[in-house]
Design a protein that fits this description.
The chain has 312 residues and is of the alpha/beta class. The protein has helices spanning 12-24, 27-34, 38-52, 68-91, 108-115, 119-125, 177-183, 232-240, 250-258, 289-306, and strands at 57-60, 63-66, 100-106, 129-135, 149-152, 162-169, 171-175, 197-200, 206-212, 218-224, 227-229, 245-249, 263-265, 275-281. Helix content is 38%, strand content 24%. A five-stranded mixed β-sheet has the order 4-3-5-14-6. α1 (12-24) crosses α2 (27-34). The longest helix is centred in the N-terminal third of the chain and has 24 residues, at 68-91.
């Protein structure tokens, strides 16, 4: 007879095996991480499936994936495991101790520019903290993916996240000197339609860029890119390689501009729209010591070392 879900009390260790197996898409990877036999992880997930009477994972040559029931349980398990960790810290008088695993989501380019250069400082200060970096341009779901902190340029109006401003910046057009030597430098935004442009695939084949004319009035130009890339990091590398003209965040282009690998294009027509970079977390995790430590680290890194600021 199938057991009713409410009569089954899962072992937190089994829930952790489920979550980590899904994160890593592999029983063996989860087992290596925790230094146990693969059979221990597999049996833990088997116990959950037997206890709830539902299939939680799909197994294929491409790795593990969650069934709808597995995804729902994994979401609830992440929240429960985080609460248990906080309870344990409180009972052992270690609430302020920065320890455990922290999952940080960011675009690859921002991660490389803001996080990686200074991560050794964070690890030296908090040796019990384990950091997992998830580098992707898409907006990660904090709850379903178990993200503790995410770096975003938009947060909207929502009670589902808590946002801390890290800095403000502009986006401008750039190209490699060699590209401009071969193809000329556009004198007006309308000239871009005769140039090779590089954009992000998420924007589609036609992209509208905003400018201001000599009188300061808004001006828009739509371009059809010759090259589109699936990440901002690839767009950046393509521009340095001379593939065309494209839009980059000013702080991310600054080092290449300083070293002569990139040149700003159409600077007098820049829209001067200011964007904001935020560190966001879910309300339920904002008070965790590891989350506060990471956000404080990001604030210091962006203020003292990355110099996020509008370009004037």
């Amino acid at each position: 007879m199938k057991q009713e879900p409410r009569s089954f009390l899962p072992d937190p260790a089994d829930l952790r095996w489920l979550v980590r197996s899904l994160d890593l898409r592999s029983f063996s990877a989860a087992a290596r991480e925790m230094d146990v036999a693969v059979s221990v992880v597999a049996r833990g997930v088997d116990r959950l499936e037997a206890g709830y009477g539902v299939r939680l994972l799909r197994r294929s040559t491409h790795g593990l994936s969650a069934t709808p029931e597995g995804a729902e349980l994994a979401q609830e398990a992440r929240a429960l495991l985080a609460q248990l960790e906080d309870i344990g810290a409180s009972l052992s008088d270690q609430r302020s101790r920065v320890a455990g695993t922290l999952r940080l989501a960011s675009s690859q380019e921002i991660c490389e520019a803001l996080v990686l250069p200074h991560l050794a400082d964070l690890q030296a200060r908090y040796p019990a903290l384990r950091v997992e970096l998830l580098a992707d341009d898409r907006v990660a779901d904090l709850v379903t993916e178990g993200i503790d902190v995410a770096l975003r340029t938009t947060v909207g109006h929502s009670d589902l996240v808590v946002a801390r401003e890290l800095g403000r910046f502009e986006r401008r057009l750039y190209a490699a000197p060699e590209y401009l030597r071969l193809h000329g430098t556009p004198a007006h935004p309308s000239d871009l339609q005769q140039h090779h442009t590089v954009t992000h695939t998420a924007q589609g084949p036609a992209v509208t860029w905003a400018f201001r004319n000599a009188q300061g009035k808004p001006l828009e130009v739509t371009v059809r890119s010759r090259l589109a890339a699936s990440s901002s990091a690839l767009v950046h590398h393509a521009l340095v390689g001379g593939a065309g003209i494209g839009m980059l965040s000013c702080p991310l282009a600054a080092a290449d501009v300083a070293q002569g690998r990139l040149v700003e294009v159409l600077a007098p027509f820049a829209s001067r729209t200011v964007h904001t970079l935020y560190a966001v977390s879910s309300p339920g995790r904002r008070n965790a010591a590891r989350v506060k430590a990471m956000i404080d680290f990001l604030v210091k890194a962006s203020k003292d070392r990355w110099a996020l600021a509008p370009v004037r």
